[in-house]
Amino acid sequence: MMSTEIPQLHVMFLPFLGLGHMIPTLDMAKLFGARGVKTTIVTTPVNSPVFSKATQRISKDLGVQIGIKIIKFPCVEVGLPDGCENVDTLPKGGTNTEMTINFFKAISMLQEPVEQLLSECKPNCLVADMFFTWANESASKFGIPRLFFNGSCSFSLCVPAACMIHEPHKHVSSDSELFLVPGLPGDIKFTRKQFPEFMLSNDDNNEFAKLLKKTNEEDLKSYGVVVNSFYELEPTYADYCRNILGKKAWHIGPVGLCNRNFEDKAWRGKQSSIDEHECLKWLSSKKRDSVVYICFGTLAEFSSAQLIEIALGIEASGQDFIWVVRKNKKDEDGNEDWLPEGFEKRIEGKGFIIRGWAPQVLILEHESIGGMVTHCGWNSTLEGVTAGVPMVTWPLFADQFYNEKLVTQVLKIGVSVGVEERRNMGFFAKREAIEKALKEIMVGDEAEEMKKRAKSLGLMARRAVEDGGSSCSDLNALIQELSSMQPLNQ
């Protein structure tokens, strides 16, 4: 008897092993699954709880089943501590350390087990993160398209692509001289100091620079790119991607808006370090648009001296605030050496410090939040846009300088704290600069206009993912295209 079962599109997701990449991948799988697509996420033992707990809730609430396949991560084989399977937990962080290079060696060794899964599961498409530089080769072995995911926006795809074509950074007399990105709309300027190292390095021995060059080459070879952004946010650059760079690109974000209930928002990534209700109760005691939210992502490791400077800058600004600090260092007497003496007593009632992981989406959605300070990682930037809040930008590395330009120069919904060069955690911002930037977005002459623009973009973001919205339509078009490419699995 012939099977009467309807053929089902099967998409396999391969996220990079870092929370900033795993969280939006889970959201993408949820979006595909809600449209009847069979979805499978590939991960490792230590990282699997991030997905398994969420998929249990998704199955219960939406009836959407997301499969999880677990492969071994070769920590010990490459010289990493046993169980070190996530870039966020690498000892001493940074992009040029031996541990980081070893981590990416381990990533390169995942090709064989992933291909074994492709052989067993027979998906119709592989959505693989940028750092799996072998993913195009693996997908082609099985005759399926590989979609590229780099976790950023169209603007941040356009800048390095345009610079690789025109090489304007090679025609300046110093690292601090501004140069125009040729052909890119908006009069966008950078210095060499603000560019990722792989764009500048001619050193064949720089492993990380070689890796990032390879990711860009593989991007061009992939079937297309899925972008966690929405067309209305950056139409000029979405069009540039498609029409000038010739990329097949689908803007399907903000993917985080698929999380509708309290628990999904509160536990996005992992459980927060505080009681969410306590935090929201504190926020509810504040006036609308009066609190600034300060957070620098999962990889920031500021010195105690810098944290003290941040604390004093916040205090001098006079603004109510929530500050997320991923540091809990104490001296011999049990005092935290990163806080000015008497700081917490002085800011009692005005400030709320979260040590560890914060329920960021819930906080940003609260009506009392009027602005945020961000490292410009794309997840946080997009969450700020979606919440409709102006931003103080403080980029640290990677694409964060690109995202800063988008926020401050293109969208005009933020101000820079003044970072002039990519030095990982090496830039030191003084309290006066922090105070000035906070006042500018909260009570400055341009604050009201920035807030209006930010809130308008927040409304656009929500409309984009609704039925008939641009992101909803792009996702439906992508699924339809994938479904029409080849016979689906029975």
SSE topology:
Blueprint: E1 10-14, H1 19-34, E2 38-43, H2 48-62, E3 66-70, H3 98-108, H4 111-121, E4 125-129, H5 135-141, E5 146-149, H6 154-166, E6 179-180, E7 189-190, H7 197-200, H8 207-221, E8 224-227, H9 235-244, E9 249-251, H10 262-266, H11 276-284, E10 291-294, H12 304-317, E11 320-325, H13 343-346, E12 351-355, H14 360-365, E13 369-374, H15 378-387, E14 391-393, H16 400-410, E15 414-416, H17 431-442, H18 447-464, H19 470-485
Parallel strand pairs: 1-2, 1-4, 2-3, 4-5, 5-8, 8-9, 10-11, 10-13, 11-12, 13-14, 14-15
Antiparallel strand pairs: 6-7
Helix pairs in contact: 1-2, 6-9, 12-17, 15-18
Any overview of this molecule?
It contains 19 helices and 15 strands. The protein is α/β, with parallel strands linked by helices. The strands form three sheets. It has a seven-stranded parallel sheet with strand order 3-2-1-4-5-8-9, with helices on both faces. A six-stranded parallel sheet has the order 12-11-10-13-14-15, with helices on both faces. The chain has a two-stranded antiparallel sheet with strand order 6-7. α12 (304-317) links the parallel β10 (291-294) and β11 (320-325). The longest helix is centred in the last third of the chain and has 18 residues, at 447-464. The two termini are 14 Å apart. The mean pLDDT is 88. This is Glycosyltransferase.
